[in-house]
Amino acid sequence: MLTTINPAQHRRIALLLGAVGVTSLLAVALPELTAAGEAVSAAAASPAAVKIDNFAFTPATLTITAGTTVTWKNEDDSPHRIGDKNGTFKSAALDTDDTFSHTFAAPGEYPYICTIHPYMAGKIIVKPVGKTSSN
Ligand SMILES: [Cu+2]
After folding, report:
1. How far apart are the CA of 18 and the centre of ligand 1, in A?
2. How far is the CA of 82 from the centre of ligand 1 (A)?
3. pTM (two decimals)
4. Could you say which DSSP state residue 31 is in?
């Protein structure tokens, strides 16, 4: 099953990259403008979330840029435990409302499963920073 980035998601990623770039410049030139910088940072972190419910990961495939922290939250009644197939990251058993976070520094594809219910599968696709800003 192939998953592609739809145009709306693509625009949002490009906007986020632009916002981060501007924030970095402002932080260097005008360190006193921290209120604006904090607002942008909070917005940039919001898409990187995966919900666990009904024995499934939503979204099943999540595309992010390198350096993004992904947070999984178990909203199911059953415990789940996240394990990357390549051993890069692994959570403890997550009870209802527990969360697990991992920061993806390196671009690549990270397929993972629930190690308690191996038929539950998801994937994180990490794109290099700046790739979408040149078109
Ligand atoms: Cu599970």
Report:
1. 37
2. 8
3. 0.64
4. T
